[in-house]
Each structure stands twice: as C-alpha cells, then as structure tokens.
UniProtKB/TrEMBL annotation:
InterPro entries, per the entry: Methyltranfer_dom, METTL25, SAM-dependent_MTases_sf
Record lineage: Eukaryota, Metazoa, Ecdysozoa, Arthropoda, Crustacea
Stored PANTHER family: CGI-41 METHYLTRANSFERASE (PTHR12496), METHYLTRANSFERASE-LIKE PROTEIN 25B (PTHR12496:SF2)
Domain of life (superkingdom): Eukaryota
Name listed for the protein in its UniProt record: Methyltransferase domain-containing protein
Annotated ranges, domain Methyltransferase: 153-311
C-alpha cells in the first residue's frame, strides 16, 4: 500500500487494499491483549503483566517523552540495549499499517477528482482561506453570525466540511444535500446561507430541532440586516425535520423519499447525503442508503463513536460492513478496541510529551477504580466526571 494524504479506492486498487486489510487484521488479532483494555483497568486487571516480559524490560526504562517518541513514526529513542525483535516488528508494523493521518492542506485533490468524475474541466475554489484561524482561535471563513454557539473545534469542523459538501453538492447533486443527524443545524445553516446549497435537515431529537429553529430565527434576523448591503444572499433557510432513519433493509430506499422529501424523485432531482459526527450505526446506514437509492449521487460522512457500531446483527451489522472483512479470521473487534479507535494517537503523544504531572490523573483514576471494584463492585467502570486541574492535586484531595 502506498502512502498518500488521502485514500482513493478504485477497481484498479481494490486488491491492494484487500491485502492491506488482511495484514491489518492479522496485526490486530496478534495483539488483542493490548487492544482489549482500558488504562482505567491498569491495576484491577494487572495490564502490565499482559505484555511480553522482554517488552516490559525495555518499556520500564522509558520516560514519558520516550513513550511519545515510540508512538511517532520515525522518531528516535535512546537505547541502552538492543530491543527484542518482536517489539521492533510491532512498532514498524503498526506504523506501516496505519492509515494516512496528516490533514490535507487544501481541498484541491477533491476538486481534481470531481473534475475527472463529472468531466467539466477544472473546478475553482471560491474561498481559498478556508483553513485560516485568527489569533483568538476563531475561524476566519465564518462570519460572526455563523460562529455563534460554536467553539473553535466545532468551527474548524463545520467550516472545512461545508467547503467539501458544497463542492460535492454543486458538482454531482444538483445543489441539494440532506443533512442526516443535523443537530442544531450549524453545518446546514452555513451551507444554505454561506454556500447557496439547498439543505434538508434530519434529526431524531426534538430538543435539537427546537434549538435549530431558534438559531435559524436568530440568523434570519441577521440576514435581514445583511441584505440591506448585499441583496445576493439566499432567501431560503435549511428546512429542519424530525426523523428517525432506520436501516434501509427495514423500509427500503423509498422511506427517504416519502418521509423526507416526497417530491424529490417525482421531480427527477438528485441529492447527496451529509453527516458530521455520524454516530455508531448511522454511518453504515447512510452508506447503505447511498447504494440502494438511485437519486442519491454522493455521501459525505464523518463518523464517530465506533464502539457503538453493532456487530451481532447478521442482516445489517454496523461492523464489519464488508463481506471480505467478515470472512477474515480474527476480524472481530471488541467494544474496548473500537473505543480506542476513536482517540487520536497525537493526543497521547502530546500528553506524554508534557511529562508526568499531566499523566498522574490517569493513575488516580486507575487507583480509584481498584478501590471501587474491591469495596463496591457494582460501580465497576462507573462514569465519573473529570475535575479541572486535577493534575495539580494529590490523590487524597
């Protein structure tokens, strides 16, 4: 498998990706003792003893900074003695089989791909400054009216995905997107008012629908003021609808037509499916609808909460969706390992680089878990709230 900033799956490359998947599954299966664990259980399940004694002899001498370097591809670590071959192989294989992790610096690769697909020549990006951040952490693309109620992290996600979704909508979806799991509508509002995309919002939680309508009303007031200076702003806001989207096998692709946009198919229109933080089985459901619904020309999905994917269902499992993967021995992933997949390795390297003071909270939690399991076993893995600046406290506090 060649290393790229983005993955392009095609008929010509599918065998290479099957080989990659087979190797990745083998590596995961060999190291289940590491995958199926939480730091919280370090003492209760004696996780240190799960490792190869030859590994622990080396790792025991590591500083937190050394552990951070161990997780980084290509980083060097001072060695007092030769590492066991199995540890060297584990590190090399883990890095070799990791998917590309570097964020793309531009949307141009996507535009080039879309140009090839629709054969319309080059597609120009209207706002090349989409990735710029102000010193205060605010996203420069988003005017204040779009930044309201959004923290910088959410601004980053919404601004970047809106650029992608808008280009996809215009190129292959006739300017129509269905935002599934739209929440309070932050992404949809930016698409509708900032990119002139027609949007329908689907959300199962009534409280989020109420919030979306409230924020829509606030934006409409702001737009009224803006139209006095700029009459080219779009007039139609996104339309929020309360909807619980079942797997397509239960209702078929017509469910989306009849329940969401009744006149979409009759008008001969096409659309795209969009999801930011498609939690658990929502992401597989979108993919299945995409493959079974002719009117749907594209799907843009950013998944999350992989541990919530169903694995027991024989008809519509959330993981694995691929028949090829399902046939691989050892492909199953536990709840713990799927939850680990939700966390960025960069987060761990950053914390390790900061030193022991920022890590002792994990030790506090593991010690507390040991006490709880011993005296109150019914509180095993109980959800505990985090405490601000806990690393400045001692355990007795």
């Amino acid at each position: 498998m060649q290393s790229h900033q983005y993955v392009h799956l095609s008929a010509a490359s599918v065998q290479g990706w099957r080989n990659y998947t087979s190797q990745a599954v083998q590596l995961l299966d060999l190291n289940r003792n590491i995958l199926d664990s939480y730091v919280l259980d370090f003492f209760t399940e004696d996780l240190w003893s799960r490792l190869n004694p030859k590994w622990t002899a080396v790792l025991d001498k590591f500083s937190p900074g050394d552990l951070a370097s161990f997780l980084q591809n290509g980083a060097s670590i001072k060695q007092e003695s030769a590492w066991p071959l199995s540890l060297l192989a584990f590190r090399a294989a883990s890095h070799a089989l990791s998917l590309p992790r570097k964020a793309v610096s531009s949307v141009n690769p996507l535009l080039h791909y879309l140009s090839q697909q629709v054969q319309t020549g080059s597609i120009k990006l209207n706002k090349p400054e989409y990735h710029e951040i102000s010193p205060a952490g605010q996203h420069k693309l988003l005017q204040h009216v779009f930044r309201r109620h959004l923290k910088p992290k959410k601004q980053h996600e919404v601004a970047r995905l809106a650029i992608v979704a808008a280009q996809v909508a215009r190129c292959v979806c006739d300017g129509v997107m269905v935002d599934v799991g739209s929440g309070q509508g932050h992404l949809s509002r930016l698409l509708a008012y900032g990119h002139d995309v027609r949007v329908v919002c689907l959300e199962a939680e009534d409280k989020f629908i109420d919030g979306a309508r409230k924020f829509d009303h606030q934006l409409e007031k702001a737009v009224e003021k803006m139209t006095r200076k700029n009459t080219s702003l779009p007039l139609l806001p996104p339309g929020p609808l309360a909807c619980c989207l079942p797997p397509p096998a239960q209702h078929g692709p017509t469910h989306l037509h009849q329940g969401v946009w009744p006149d979409l198919q009759s008008r001969g229109e096409v659309c795209g499916l969009l999801g930011l933080h498609t939690c658990g089985d929502l992401a597989p459901t979108l993919l299945r609808i995409f493959t079974s619904m002719p009117a749907c020309q594209a799907v843009v999905s950013v998944g999350c909460c992989y541990m919530k994917l169903t694995t027991a269902s024989e008809e519509n499992p959330g993981f694995p969706m691929s028949n090829f993967v399902r046939r691989l021995p050892g492909h199953a992933l536990s709840y713990e390992s799927r939850e680990v997949a939700c966390h960025a390795v960069e987060m761990y390297t950053d914390r390790l680089s900061l030193g022991t003071d920022n890590l002792k909270v994990h030790c506090y939690c593991a010690c507390l878990e040991e006490i709880l399991v011993k005296h109150w076993p019914h509180h095993y893995h109980a959800g505990l709230r985090s405490v601000n600046n806990a690393h400045h406290m001692d355990f007795s506090t």
